[in-house]
Amino acid sequence: VLTATLSTEYVKGVQSQGVACCIKHFVANDTEHERHTISSDVDDVTLREAYLVPFERAVLPVEQGGAGVRAMMSSYNRINGVHASEHHELLRGVLRDEWGFDGVVFSDWYGTHSAANSLEAGLDLEMPGPPRERGKALLRELAEGHTTEARIDESVRRLLRLFAWSGVFGSDTTE
Predict the structure, then answer these.
(1) How far apart are CA 155 and CA 151, in angstroms?
(2) What whole-number distance in Å separates Cα of residue 123 and Cα of residue 73?
(3) What's the whole-model pTM score?
(4) Three-class SS of residue 18?
(5) Residues 131, 139: contact at Cβ < 8 Å?
(6) How far is Cα of residue 82 from the mean position of the Cα atoms in its chain?
(7) Each residue of 116-142: pLDDT tens digit?
(8) Is the dihedral of CA 164, 170, 171, 175 positive or negative?
(9) pLDDT, tens digit, 9 for 90 and up, residues 30-65
(10) Distances from the Cα of 134 to the Cαs of 64, 96, 97, 115, in angstroms?
(11) Half-sphere exposure (CA, 13 Å, Cβ side) for 107?
């Protein structure tokens, strides 16, 4: 609850100045030791009542007591055996569908482990460039039918909304 309160107020303050915040590491990022390979095995109750609380508050719109954060970074670790960057249940299920997050989700540096699976889960951007799992790998996965142009378009729209909101195009419009 303390983390949720502090992070929400921090994000609101920063974003009030036209700077998009990115909160990290979504989710259950408990250790630096073997952080690229470890699996944080967490039951649903603990995940909901402890780990997800600060993220949910940051995602909620300001009008609902949240911060309306614009971006989120996935963690390196696995959660219950699935890499955070391609965890469909958490990224698409909880973050996007349940909480309505329409901001950008990007991987931690070299934390993307698949092209289509991560896109299908809700990851928008592989960091850093040049891409290892996106780019040509994603085009190959698209041609093989592992994802769709509609899913790519959805991800691109989220990136463009962030760029527009932050003034990259010389405008402060969010549409």
Answers:
(1) 6
(2) 9
(3) 0.90
(4) coil
(5) no
(6) 15
(7) 999 999 999 999 989 999 999 999 999
(8) negative
(9) 878 888 888 999 999 999 999 999 999 999 999 999
(10) 35, 21, 23, 5
(11) 29
